Structure formats: structure tokens, C-alpha cells
Amino acid sequence: MITSEIQELFAELEDAWNRGDGAAYGACFTGDATYTTFAGTVYRGRDDLAAGHQALFDTVLKGTRMFNELTGVRFYGPATAVVTGKGDVARKRPGKLAKVQTYTLVRETDGRWRIAAFHNTRRRPLIEAVSFRYVPASRPRG
To answer: pTM for this structure?
Structure first.
């Protein structure tokens, strides 16, 4: 079950993206966060990912909106959670969210959940289908 506090974090994340506010976006992450984009770019630390995203928000991502669908959460004690989901960014909501995402969250000393690690992968259904056809045992069971 995704708690209201975690839902608030993701609402803040989306709001910051939708406003094109790199500093507010970065504030959703821990100071030492790692952030891996679908292209393989790795940002290290809140300041790095905030500055990088502000540059993107001011240019190629200007006017885009973030769309998330959280699909699961697993808690590892009271201060650590792994959240999985699907997401995408576009000017309007796409028919299918094309990226698979994993977030590692921690509850920091101020009591707030923040993202310590994020990994974003573009889903490739055709490649999956070919792989599963030739190696059926590689298909996930769940």
C-alpha cells in the first residue's frame, strides 16, 4: 500500500516538473541521490540533478508534463521503501506510459520521504516479445 506521505512526495515531484522548477524537483531527492535516465545519463547528488534538469526544463523539456503510475511499494523497515512504476513525460498524456521506473526512498531525519536512487528504463515490447519467443523461460513469472 502506498502511503499518503509517499503519494505527497510524488505529487511534489510531478508539480515541480510541470512548473519547470529544477530546484523544487531536486528537493524531492536526498543530497547524495543517484538518478539514472533512460538514456543512461547518471546524475550524482541533488545539486547535480537539479541543475541538469533546470537546463533541460529551460530548453528541450520546456512545457512538458510528468505522468506517473505507481505500481508497487515494498518497505524495508520504517525508513526505506522501493517504489516501482510506469511513467513518461510529454506535452499531453500519452496513450501508454513507455518507461519502467524504480525509486529507492528513505525517510530522512526531518521525517520526510525523499528519493535516494532513481532508475528509468524505456520499455521495448517488441524486443521483449522476440526474447520471450526464443527463450520462453526468460519471461517474468509475476
So the answer is: 0.89
